[in-house]
Structure formats: structure tokens, C-alpha cells
Design brief:
Arc Repressor Mutant, subunit A, 2 domains, 4 strands, four-stranded antiparallel β-sheet, Alpha-Beta Plaits, about 160 residues
């Protein structure tokens, strides 16, 4: 965040921390927390959104409560040209149970984060992954328990940039 860091002041960082903690926080509550008028907070939020710092808002759902308690990660190998590899990545990204697709360095080409109902469902999903044109193999790790999983990004100290 080095480039964006220089564009964010202490108030922006405090606003971002508040939003990461609770995206439903009211502008009035944010304004009180950062000691600004609600209109000033709205202007800052619009600028953060326009610059792409705030990419969106959402609700975090409990996968187990929705019957998707099986978490796994799959490394995927592909062959072919760069266009073939990109096409395979695009097809993998279209699978609803594939939550993340990362192009990685090393023996494998992609790392997938997959949510499934159970091991049988995961097996079906891995067969679908293997049937994507260009995919030559997969290696899968099944998660037994999750110690930490968060969408929150670490932000620089809010005091950074404030004068003493």
C-alpha cells in the first residue's frame, strides 16, 4: 500500500478502519468518530470510492450456516500458451464454489480457494476443475480448522501523518 499510503491521511485511515470493522456504520457515527461534519465524511468516502481505495461494501456470511463448511485449497497446473492459461483461469473463476483464483509462480499455475458442502461435493468440483481445457493436474489441501480468516487489510497506524 506504499503508493496509496502517501495519499491517505489519518482521518482517511480511521474512516477505512471503521468501515472494515462494520460497513453498515452510519455516516453520522463515522463523522462523530473522526470529528468531522457528515458532509465532509461523505465527500471523503466518495473520493476514496472514486480512487478505488473502497472497492465495495458487503455482508460476510457464515459458510457452515449455508451448507458450505468444507474449505479447501487446490493448486492447478495448466499447459498451453499464455492465452490458454488465461482462458483456463477465466473458466475456473466462473465456478461459484471457487471463491478465489490466484495466478501463482512455481510448479503450479493457479491456487484456488474452494467452498464445498462435504468431501463428495469437493470431489465433484475437483473433477470439474480437471475438465477445464488446459488443466493437467491438481493438488488439493483440505482445511481441518481455520485459525484466522479475515477480509480486513492491515492499515498503517492512524497516528501516522498527524503532527505531534
Amino acid at each position: 500500500m506504499a503508493a496509496a499510503d502517501s495519499l491517505l491521511d489519518a482521518i482517511d485511515l480511521k474512516i477505512l478502519n471503521l468501515l472494515q470493522a462494520n460497513a453498515r456504520v452510519s455516516q453520522a457515527d463515522v463523522a462523530r468518530a473522526v470529528n468531522l461534519a457528515p458532509s465532509a465524511v461523505l465527500e471523503r468516502l466518495r473520493k476514496l470510492e472514486a480512487r478505488g481505495v473502497v472497492a465495495g461494501y458487503g455482508a460476510y456470511l457464515d459458510p457452515a450456516a449455508l451448507g458450505l463448511g468444507q474449505l479447501s485449497f487446490a493448486f492447478v497446473r495448466t499447459v498451453g500458451s499464455m492465452e490458454d492459461m488465461d482462458r483456463a483461469g477465466d473458466l475456473l473463476a466462473q465456478m461459484p464454489e471457487v471463491l478465489e483464483v490466484h495466478h501463482v509462480a512455481g510448479e503450479d499455475c493457479y491456487l484456488l480457494k474452494i467452498r464445498a458442502r462435504d468431501s463428495q461435493h469437493l470431489s465433484q468440483l475437483l473433477r470439474s476443475v480437471s475438465s477445464v481445457p488446459g488443466v493437467t493436474g491438481t493438488r488439493t489441501t483440505i482445511v481441518l480448522t481455520t485459525v484466522k480468516e479475515t477480509p480486513r487489510l492491515p492499515l498503517p497506524s492512524e497516528s501516522k501523518g498527524e503532527s505531534a
